[in-house]
Amino acid sequence: MISRSPDLFKFRGVVSPRNLRSFHHRHPPPPPAPTMSDLRPPEHQVAGHRASANKLGPLVDGSGLFYKPLQAGDRGEQERAFYEAFSAHAAVPPRIRDAFFPRFHGTRLLPTEARPGEPHPHLVLDDLLAGLQAPSVADIKIGAITWPPSSPEPYVAKCLAKDRGTTSVLLGFRVSGVRVVAPGGAVWRPERPELKALGTAGVRRVLRRYVSSVSGEVADCALAAAVYGGEGGVLSQLRELKAWFEEQTLFHFYSASILLGYDADAVSATGAGGGVRVKLVDFAHVAEGDGVIDHNFLGGLCSLIKFISDIVSEAPETPPLAP
């Protein structure tokens, strides 16, 4: 779904020789394309289609790269065009680009199990969870409106029905996927139908459970101070991102998600933040900002910050250390 012509992201100044030199300096060509034996579906994927024998899905190579297949129709080209424009845009602060967005390494034609003998184009990105030994992950789709302008009516109707059936319209965000690793290695991963059915109280419960140290149904929020609070915690990073969205008028991020991640083993062992990560992902529906603030994304982001801030204020200040 695109909101403009295929030239959507040919912003003024983006494709200048200076910007292109800067882009290639920041993003050197990726290493040689991996073989099928090097690739596997991400173990910690919590949302989106999972790669299988009959379905395309993201892959990782174990060396820090993430391969996302270009989606069908205009969506794949839209996302590729966004990455190319965003990576070279002189008006995007380097701190924002480096801290909150996946690094873009170009595209690759890769063999896939779903289509033997037919290499498929993939975006080559950083694996955002690389280096975390026991990743606890949450995928949170931001915005009360998840379709870009000029989308065809059937697509708008489909998105609106889904948004109204979840908390997107009510809260400005919805939890699309979550995976929590408890001490001892137990994993809590609710099914998608359960997440889609969440109301306000359910979303709060899931966000509390995400930073709990127990594997049962009780959410003790023992890790909230280490993961959500403090310097470099989720709240600090979300507020930095919010400050940019209060000013940026370059892009409108429809149906994009915020990916949260931390190393559960490190947090439990040290009582401090374990590689807390806050990243934006999924850009197949980004539109030009045309000088207007992205109130749809900003509103959802503010709502998420309020939910997490309330959890931190109610939680114990110091997490228990693992034995």
UniProtKB/TrEMBL annotation:
<feature type="region of interest" description="Disordered">
    <location>
        <begin position="20"/>
        <end position="47"/>
    </location>
</feature>
<dbReference type="InterPro" id="IPR038286">
    <property type="entry name" value="IPK_sf"/>
</dbReference>
<dbReference type="GO" id="GO:0032958">
    <property type="term" value="P:inositol phosphate biosynthetic process"/>
</dbReference>
<dbReference type="GO" id="GO:0008440">
    <property type="term" value="F:inositol-1,4,5-trisphosphate 3-kinase activity"/>
</dbReference>
<dbReference type="GO" id="GO:0047326">
    <property type="term" value="F:inositol-1,3,4,6-tetrakisphosphate 5-kinase activity"/>
</dbReference>
<dbReference type="GO" id="GO:0005634">
    <property type="term" value="C:nucleus"/>
</dbReference>
<protein>
    <recommendedName>
        <fullName>Inositol polyphosphate multikinase</fullName>
        <ecNumber>2.7.1.140</ecNumber>
        <ecNumber>2.7.1.151</ecNumber>
    </recommendedName>
</protein>
<comment type="similarity">
    <text>Belongs to the inositol phosphokinase (IPK) family.</text>
</comment>
<keyword id="KW-0808">Transferase</keyword>
<dbReference type="GO" id="GO:0005524">
    <property type="term" value="F:ATP binding"/>
</dbReference>
<keyword id="KW-0547">Nucleotide-binding</keyword>
<dbReference type="GO" id="GO:0005737">
    <property type="term" value="C:cytoplasm"/>
</dbReference>
<keyword id="KW-0418">Kinase</keyword>
<keyword id="KW-0067">ATP-binding</keyword>
<dbReference type="InterPro" id="IPR005522">
    <property type="entry name" value="IPK"/>
</dbReference>
<comment type="function">
    <text>Inositol phosphate kinase with a broad substrate specificity.</text>
</comment>
<dbReference type="Pfam" id="PF03770">
    <property type="entry name" value="IPK"/>
</dbReference>
